[in-house]
Amino acid sequence: MTRFVKNPNYWNGTVHLDAVEFYPVPDPATMLDLLNNGDLDALHTTDQTTIKDLKSNADVVNMLDDTGEESFQMINSQNPPFDDIRVRQALAFATPKAKQLELIGLGEVRSADQMFTPESPYFNPDVKQDADQPDKALPLVAAYCAEKGTVINPVLNQPTCTNGKVNMEYQFVGPSAVGLRSAEIFEEGWKVAFNVTRDEVNQQDHIQQNALGQSNVLGWRQFGAIDPWADSVWLLCRTVGAISLNWPRYCDPARDTILLDAQNTDDPAKRAEGYKALAQNMHDAYTYIFLNHTLWTNSFAKNVHGTCAIKSPEGVALKCTSNGLTWLDTTWMDQ
């Protein structure tokens, strides 16, 4: 448990709660039971089974948001075999996105084709995520394996192809029953053209290995900043390095120009067109396979109030919740 106590000298008004205690609870079902039994006053989660249960509970106040983060597969474009765009395209075509949304999303999440939600002024309706077309993967993989099948995949330390299929590692965070089930779903789709080695690791190692380029394909969640420029650190050439924040390690000077031009204009229409071009550019690079807009809930017992009362110093109401985060400095509770 981590306990935060209120600051009596807080600059932005009175803080009502004396303290807030945070309890890490890895199992979503246990977390839900703790809330229902009164042992927790609030929780946040992206587990869709838990969200369905919370939505049906009249004694819980739910704040749902899917505009602050995207869920996707991310591909390291520096390591063979995924330094070849044909292999990245093949993985996209073979991805069983519809089944993932059905079995893991449970009808609760919205499908994603890009880093922007349809409500965003930067959403590009022409960008569609390639997936669920395994027949298109086969000729791409066949051509690659015929040319480069003996090149070594440095992550697996073995040739990039065996028996006409591409050898790859898929890394995801665990231990997680949902993560493992998702890995099984993806492997079932990918096996038409890929030999998949799973690597379930804790989140610290997941991030570290990705930053160091020690990966092929990863399950990942990111993006969703209110100002897209805040997400540019993940996309620019200058953030590719030995330790890389451009996680896919993909450098495209044309993308840099798109990002910088969009940031530097004060014309909202030009900025919107720039970010729409960015969505197309990201699609065409095939380093991300977008799955869904990540649905978070911040859920509170009925005696918790004020989480949406936050305002800026100018008195403007601020967004209640984003990416699982919410405000606590205006929160108060019934006795």
The succession of helices and strands, N to C, reads EEHEHEEHHEHEEEEHEHEHHEEEEEE
The domain count comes to 2
- Count every beta strand, where a strand is a DSSP E run of 2 or more residues: 18
Low-confidence stretches: none
Q: Output the CATH topology of the largest domain.
A: Dipeptide-binding Protein, domain 3
Give the helix proportion (percent range). Answer: 25-40%
| Helix and strand composition category | alpha+beta
For the record, the CATH architecture of the largest domain stands as: Roll
**Looking at the structure, what is the overall shape?**
globular
Name the beta content range: 15-25%
Largest sheet: 7 strands, mixed
Average pLDDT value? 95
**Gyration radius, rounded:** 22 Å
What is the name of the CATH class of the largest domain? Alpha Beta
According to CATH, the homologous superfamily of the largest domain is Dipeptide-binding Protein, Domain 3
Instruction: Give me the number of helical elements.
Output: 9
Terminal CA distance reads 22 Å
Family: Belongs to the bacterial solute-binding protein 5 family.
Keywords: Signal, Transport
InterPro entries: SBP_5, SBP_5_dom
Domain Solute-binding protein family: 3-150
